[in-house]
Amino acid sequence: MFFRDSAMTGAILGLFTLVWFGWAQERPPATWKARLVLGSVLGAVLAISGGVLAWRNWGTGSVLAGDGTLRMYLIIVGIEFAVTAAGIAALQFTRKTDYQAPWTCLVVGVHFYPMAPVFRDVGLYALATVLTAVAVASIPIARRRRLAISAVTGAAAGTTLLLFAAYSLIKLAMSFPLHSGHLT
Question: Are 44 and 178 in contact (CB under 8 A)?
Answer without folding.
Answer: no
